[in-house]
Amino acid sequence: MLLSLVTVAANAQQKTTKVKKDEVDYVNPLIGTAATGFAKGLDGGGTMPCVNVPFAMTNFVAQTGENKMSKMSYTYEDNSVIGLMASHQPTVWMGDYGYVSVMPQIGNLRVLPEERKLMFDHKDEVAKPYYYSVKLKAAANTNIKAEIAGSNTCGMFRFTFPKADQAHLIIQGINLNPTLTDWANDFKVRMKELRGYVHVDTVNNEITGYNPDRQSAQLGPPLKNFKGYFIIKFDKPIRSYGTWDNQTIKKRSKEQFGTRMGAYVSFKTTGNTVVKVTVATSFISIDQARHNLKREIPDWDFEKVVKSTRDNWQQQLKKVQVADITDGQKTIFYTALFHTLLFPREFSEYGRYYSAFDDKIHNGVSYNDYSLWDTFRALHPLLTLTQPERVNDMVKSLLQMYQEGGWMPMWPNPTYTNIMIGTHADAVIADAYVKGFRGYNIALAYEALHKDAFAAPDGDVQKKWGDRDLWTSFEARGGLTNYHKLGYIPVDKTKESVSRTIEYGIDDYCVAQLAKALGKTSDYNQLMGWSKNYKNVYNSSTGFMAPRNADGSWSAQSDSGFTEGTKWTYTFGAMQDVPGMIALMGGEKAFADKLTHNFNDGHYRADNEPGHHYIYLFNYCGMPWKAQELVRQHTSWQNFRNAPIGINGNDDCGQTSAWYIFSTMGFYPVTPASGLYSIGAPQFPYIAMNLQNGNKLVIKATGLSAQNKYVKSVTFNGVAIKDHTISHEQISHGGTLAFTMTNIPQKD
């Protein structure tokens, strides 16, 4: 008889099992779920203990509060649950869409979230990537056990009820709560336009419906046909049922439209009564949701779903093996790897997908929820190593969005949003091309990248393009007109001007690499010229990147014009031209001195993506030992811990975790589309990564210890590395990257 995986999960969580752990068993999905960071001024990780397969379309999670943009569905500091949720919220700063939830209850029927919530204690909680459970305090000394198993588009909930004359399952199909919106002026419009729907079917023992809500809808174009469809099936016959709309409960009602509403089923329990509920989701149709359910959960075998999802995670996580480290370190590492395997989410449903860019159904494969401003830096480069089989489809998905909507997205959720800055899909695609990925229409790719680099968005010079402005049109590279005309973006014309100037230069460099490869010499020369535009916002009198006005004068507001940061955050931001930055700032010594001040004086923020490459810049100015020292410091407990307050700063759809994975391995992709990695210092004695085509990369650190954090020498396949760089081409063919560690900083 097979040992119950649910039992193994519970025992592993409570540290009582002696069963040998697989890689998946080290994952702690509660890491990063706290809302507040470990250090003052830092946000929490913005993660959630979701149960689903890697890159799943739908995340199944306990909902501890009403989520919105800036609040996750699960927050560790909360002590109550309002439902088990099928969610599509990718991260804390983006919205949910097409969601639905199911909540167990006994006693008098209470349908609104604030009334139906049940308290819980974290000691009664088990969280694994393939299983979640919690005991909900339904009454004095009485609990309801709630469990989650999840797959890709579908999940199963299992509820164990105590004896009760009145037991209920409450379905919430849509939740437009005006007290939660940050967009008061737009909310009345959404309330009029959006109406969810539920239908109770006593013949097929199910509740069907759809939810057209997108919490970030005000930041993108309208979508007439968008709906999150769902089917909720029960393994017990529906006898007593009804619908509800706000506070109005309608017994025996089978159909309901509304903006804050749902349905319910009621029954009598005799004690330890188990009720199973399957939830199927789709963005195509109810029929597609039914097809998804047949593919993923064809019967009521809860344990079978748990095992299948566990096996899926294990297959992906075991691609990277670590040795000679503590269990605590393994938990941090494999949880970080887990976080890099969630987004962008797979959006297609067995050969078809709904496009939120032309509001139509298409054949093909699709991914969505790309946090591109964050993830072009480390996550997507990591996926070229850990998930090469998905890279071409991720690129094709971005190109499909271009064909269907006219532009590639900046931050799709699931359609265009003008969140953050830059067209960093350019970097993702160019980086994939440089690394040898060709499974997409290359001519179309260049067309899309060329448009980003050369075409200004509609109304460019009339708009300020402020962060999270209500939708008028797609932003693309807002301010591009002046960027081309003046060589920089003026602060008196466009918001976030300095950051835009620097980041547009990064994208120009990336597009240039594709232009060069395709023989488009004129475009290449033009783009490489623009990639140096960051120099035009460097104020040599202050030694910082600074805002300039359209007339060429420096703005008196020296800290204006930046995105989520200050002049310290962006002064070293031109990752596409590190030698050029060094020369601009007076040479290696002057550059190194200023970079050292950035770290020593508390300006560096490990939680902020624009600085994720800063540690490695010491390699370029004669101080590699300093990079090695800082890698040790910033991959430590200071920023990563085995605790809910486990990630300093938002994980941003796996970007921060990808930075951690690269940094522990001993190399980092400083410049996208260059095909090169900058050598740091490994943090584990042994790491092995299974690559494509059966190749394997082994990383060894001989003599590594808390004191021996510096690199004495490094070789790849026995050949010494002298310039602190290694190519993707070398790594992709496999081999041994061998470090000899010492306690003495090496000056060369």
From TrEMBL:
Domain (Glycosyl hydrolase family): residue spans on this chain: 288-742
Quaternary assembly: Monomer.
Any GO CC annotation of this UniProt entry: cytosol
GO MF annotations, alphabetized: carbohydrate binding; peptide-N4-(N-acetyl-beta-glucosaminyl)asparagine amidase activity
Keyword vocabulary terms for this entry: Calcium, Hydrolase
Record flagged with keyword DNA-binding: no
Domain of life, per lineage: Bacteria
Names of required cofactors: Ca(2+)
InterPro entries: 6-hairpin_glycosidase_sf (IPR008928), GH-type_carb-bd (IPR014718), GH92_a_mannosidase_put (IPR005887), GH92_N (IPR041371), Glyco_hydro_92 (IPR012939), PNGase (IPR050883)
Keyword Chloroplast among UniProt keywords: no
A biological process term (GO) from this entry: glycoprotein catabolic process
Pfam families (UniProt xref): Glyco_hydro_92, Glyco_hydro_92N
Domain Glycosyl hydrolase family 92 N-terminal residue range list: 26-282
Protein name per its UniProtKB record: Glycoside hydrolase family 92 protein
SUPFAM superfamilies, per database record: Six-hairpin glycosidases
